[in-house]
Design goal:
four-stranded antiparallel beta sheet, 314 residues, alpha+beta, rod-shaped, three-stranded antiparallel beta sheet, 9 helices, single chain, 54% helix
Length: 314
């Protein structure tokens, strides 16, 4: 009876020892063996089954993948003394787990050190750079013809030349400056980026007020130019109308003159065929124009009286 119990106890003890003597490393992990608080041997980077001294050594695991760091939003003055809000982010990995464990122990300690280093570097670089260099890309440029065509829309106090550095170059400078301090931490800094840049609330309100005033001034100038152009078009239209009317009146007068001349010619030909009848007809027209109370003083030899006298005899 005792022999199976002893064998079972030995087997159970062997399983416990074997379980504590082996460990598995994932592809996304790397590890260091620690004995009595001190690292033993080289870092273990190969995935798979590994062995250690049971109950004496323990395994410290570290991530091999890229890790994200997001800094706190900071208020930083630029070289032109504009206070801006800068939000940065970075990507990093544990390059030397042994040095990493000795310097910062774990990821929490690493993030604390990254906060100090990257925030300090970002503050130094942003405070020594003009705002235009921070918000523009290096390949940013303005078409000079478009800028001249939009005179008054583009602010005169803003430099429209191509940036000397641009945001990408500034981010590279941040990465280079911060990377110099990373080897002593066992960290490889892969990338540093500026996520967001904005004015602080008080400055933003001032900028918005100035932008509104500028846009109102531009709009007023456009309205004034439009009214001037409208008056110019209306004046030109009036001149054209006067020219058209004058030409029409001239042509109408010429037509009436030709018509009167033609009528006179026709009348002349018609009356020339029988002058006596013409004289009689003209006299009758004169009679028709006389009123009921008209008084005439005529010579007895007058043709006008002659026709009137002959009419009374009839």
């Amino acid at each position: 009876m005792k022999s199976p119990i002893i064998l079972g106890a030995i087997a159970l003890l062997g399983l416990i020892v074997l379980r504590d003597a082996t460990f598995v490393i994932d592809q996304a992990e790397q590890a260091i063996l620690v004995q009595f608080g001190e690292p033993i041997g080289e870092p273990i980077n190969e995935p798979g089954l590994h062995f250690k001294t049971p109950f004496i050594q323990e395994v410290r695991r570290f991530d091999k993948r890229l890790l994200a760091w997001d800094g706190d939003v900071s208020q930083i003055p630029t070289l032109g003394r504009e206070f801006v809000i800068v939000d940065t982010t970075a990507r990093w990995r544990i390059a030397d787990p042994l040095q990493f464990m000795r310097s910062v122990r774990d990821e929490s300690g690493a993030r604390t050190r990254l906060d100090d280093i990257i925030d300090s570097v970002a503050r130094d670089i942003v405070s020594g750079t003009n705002l235009e260099e921070i918000v523009r890309s290096r390949d940013w440029q303005v078409d000079s013809e478009t800028a001249e065509a939009e005179e008054g829309v583009v602010r005169g106090d803003v430099d429209l030349d191509k940036p000397k550095k641009g945001r990408e170059r500034l981010e590279q400078e941040m990465l280079a400056a911060a990377s110099r301090l990373m080897p002593e931490l066992g960290i490889e800094l892969v990338d540093v980026r500026i996520k967001r840049i904005n004015y602080i609330d008080s400055v933003r309100r001032q900028v918005e007020t100035r932008m509104i005033a500028e846009r109102q001034s531009i709009a007023e100038r456009f309205r004034s130019e439009g009214q001037g152009r409208s008056q110019e078009i209306l004046g030109d239209m009036e001149r054209q109308l006067r020219t058209i009317r004058s030409e029409a009146e001239r042509q109408a007068a010429e037509i009436r003159g030709r018509a009167d001349a033609e009528a006179t010619r026709i009348y002349g030909e018609a009356y020339g065929a029988d002058p006596e009848f013409y004289a009689f007809f003209r006299t009758l027209e004169s009679y028709r124009n006389l009123g009921d109370n008209s008084t005439l003083m005529l010579d007895s030899e007058s043709d006008f009286f002659r026709y009137l006298q002959s009419t009374r005899r009839r």
